TrEMBL record:
Single GO MF descriptor: Kdo transferase activity
Biological source species: Rhodovastum atsumiense
InterPro entries the UniProt entry points to: Glycos_transf_N, Glycos_transf_N_sf, Kdotransferase
UniProt protein name: 3-deoxy-D-manno-octulosonic acid transferase
Domain annotation 3-deoxy-D-manno-octulosonic-acid transferase N-terminal: ranges: 15-193
A GO CC annotation given for this chain: plasma membrane
Length: 403
């Protein structure tokens, strides 16, 4: 299975031993706090925690499960001055012997699992070793809650293994308590406290000059099945908005060539090939890693994908934090609280399908004042809970007294 994932670009071959709990690097001396996040979104949300934890004595070990999250940390840790103070490793797969090797090597003094990372063997092994555990920014959808309710004994064992849980919302907290979690609080969602996505200022200035004052909108984090819908929106808008630039950033950048084929017949360029946006009306595929902050700054009108198909959506706060007017589809069930907050602030619109999305983009292209007002409201709403990282860091450090 791991070999197949390497072939698909889902694993890094020289780092496969990490997935088996094998690591040649020695454990640093002193205290070690371990933080685990699944992928990019969860990793971005805990960057402020890494900064705060790195100021305390000892070492921070950050594990993730995806190549994209590893690439993100390889870039962001040096930018944040955390290189050498925060170590990144891939999390071992949930195989008892591999988990045991990982824990025997790193011997964490405390551990935080981010959002919904519930791995039975990993959790049980930590508990048996007396490692204090915390659920960080915990999220549990109604659908996941119903599934866990079918396994009440397992749920009580796993959720009860955590010494405390910091939930994203009161609804998440209530579900966690019913499944057996202890010491649950809901001080807020760390995604509201994340820093704005970064961008290369020189490249941003160059691309802004190239785009100029032409009409532009962005479809971000699109999923399979949405790309043809973006094409339809582009073709619908083009007669009324000559020179229209549509920026399409797929959730998985490796799909860039596939998407270009789907868009055949239109002027299309790909960022991964070093190509700039088309000079005339067309679609620019942003099929690179770590440049969403650049693309959000180029487009004041943003559709956040994985939401016109039943995949749960992506985080709309990243676009709102950078002043974008935001739309999502009807399937953003993984981001209920951020959607509700932005909607209440007048910063987000829900669209039912491609036709509704086209109508919304058209309306905002025609009304710069409304577009700017949505952007200002989104920036304000997405910046609440600025002090939450320090509060959650204190909770994590408090686990050390539980040993």
């Amino acid at each position: 299975m791991l070999s197949r994932r390497v072939a698909r670009g889902k694993e890094i071959a020289p780092r496969l031993p990490e997935r088996r709990g094998i690591d040649a690097a020695p454990r640093p001396p002193g205290r070690l706090i371990w933080l685990h996040a699944a992928s990019v979104g969860e990793t971005i949300s805990v960057l402020p925690l890494l900064q705060a934890l790195a100021t305390a004595p000892g070492t921070v070990l950050m594990t993730t499960g995806t190549v994209t999250s590893a690439a993100l940390l390889a870039r962001r840790l040096p930018e944040l001055g955390l290189e050498g103070r925060v170590l990144h490793r891939f999390v071992p797969l949930d195989v008892p012997a591999w988990v045991a090797r990982f824990l025997d090597h790193w011997r964490p003094d405390a551990a935080g699992f981010v959002e919904s990372e519930i791995w039975p063997n990993l959790i049980i092994a930590c508990r048996r070793r007396g490692i204090p555990l915390m659920l960080v920014n915990a999220r549990l959808s109604a659908r996941s809650f119903a599934q866990w309710q079918r396994l009440p004994c397992l749920a009580r064992t796993l959720f009860g293994a955590f010494d405390r849980a910091q939930a994203q919302s009161e609804a998440d907290a209530a579900r966690l308590r019913r499944l057996g979690a202890r010491h649950v609080s809901a001080p807020g969602n760390l995604k509201f406290a994340a820093p704005p996505l970064p961008a290369d200022t020189t490249e941003l200035a160059r691309l802004r000059a190239r785009v100029g004052d032409r009409p532009v909108w962005l479809a971000a984090s699109t999923y399979q099945g949405e790309d043809t819908l973006v094409r339809r929106v582009h073709e619908t808008l083009l007669p009324a908005h000559p020179g229209l630039l549509t920026i399409l950033v797929p959730r998985h950048p490796e799909r860039g060539a596939e998407i270009a084929t789907l868009l055949a017949g239109l002027p299309v360029s790909r960022r991964a090939l070093g190509e700039d946006p088309p000079e005339q009306a067309g679609i620019w595929i942003g099929d690179t890693l770590g440049e969403l902050g650049l693309q959000y700054r180029l487009a004041p009108i943003v559709f956040v994908g994985r939401s016109l198909v039943p995949e749960g959506g992506q985080n709309p706060l990243e676009a709102a934090r950078l002043g974008g007017a935001v739309a999502i589809g009807p399937h953003a069930f993984n981001f209920v609280e951020p959607v509700a907050v932005l909607r209440a602030a007048g910063a987000l619109t829900e669209v039912a399908d491609a036709d509704a999305l086209a109508a919304w983009v058209d309306a905002l292209l025609r009304d710069p004042g409304r577009r700017a007002a949505m952007g200002r409201a989104g920036t304000e709403a997405a910046s609440r809970h600025a002090g939450l990282p320090d509060e959650v860091t204190a909770m994590l450090l408090g686990l050390l007294h539980a040993r």
